[in-house]
UniProtKB/TrEMBL annotation:
SUPFAM superfamilies: HesB-like domain. It comes from Halogeometricum borinquense. It comes from the Archaea. One of its GO terms (biological process) is iron-sulfur cluster assembly. PROSITE patterns: HESB. One of its GO terms (molecular function) is 2 iron, 2 sulfur cluster binding. Residues 14-117 form the Core domain. This is Iron-sulfur cluster assembly accessory protein. NCBIfam families: iron-sulfur cluster assembly accessory protein (TIGR00049). Transmembrane segments: none annotated. Pfam families: Fe-S_biosyn. The lineage of its organism: Archaea, Methanobacteriati, Methanobacteriota, Stenosarchaea group, Halobacteria.
C-alpha cells in the first residue's frame, strides 16, 4: 500500500480550515461514517467552461495511491493526478445569505469562468 499520510503542517498538499473540517466531520457523522477511517475525497475533473472543476465526496477509505492529509481531525484523500492541480490549496467552508458550501482557494489557478465553477491552471 503506497498511501501517504501527511498530518497537517505546511508540507501538506491541501490546508483544511477548522470550519471546513468541522462541517465535513459533522456531515460524515450524520451519515454514520467512521471518521477515523473515512474521509473527504477532493479531486479535479474535466468539465466546466474553463476546462477543470473540483469534485468532492465522502469515501469510506483511501485508495492505495492516495495522499491522505489529516488536519483538524478530518482526513482528506487526494489522488495523484489531482495533486498536480491543487497543491498548496486551502479547503474552506463558507456560510452566508447566498448559501453555504465548501470552497477551494487554489493558488495555481490562472483563470476562472464567470460563475466560478471551473478553472484553468
Amino acid at each position: 500500500m503506497s498511501t501517504e499520510t501527511v498530518d497537517g503542517g505546511t508540507d501538506a498538499a491541501v490546508t483544511v480550515t477548522e470550519s471546513a473540517a468541522s462541517e465535513a466531520l459533522r456531515l460524515m457523522e450524520s451519515e454514520g461514517m467512521d471518521t477515523d477511517v473515512a474521509g473527504l475525497r477532493l479531486f479535479v475533473q474535466q468539465g466546466g467552461c474553463a476546462g477543470l472543476s473540483y469534485g468532492m465526496r465522502f469515501d469510506h477509505e483511501p485508495e492505495d495511491d492516495d495522499a491522505v492529509i489529516k488536519q483538524n481531525g478530518l482526513r482528506v484523500f487526494i489522488d495523484p493526478a489531482s495533486q498536480n492541480y491543487i497543491g498548496g490549496s486551502t479547503l474552506q467552508f463558507e456560510g452566508g445569505l447566498q448559501g453555504a458550501g465548501f470552497h477551494v482557494e487554489n493558488p495555481n489557478v490562472v483563470s476562472e469562468c464567470g460563475c466560478g465553477e471551473s478553472f484553468r491552471t
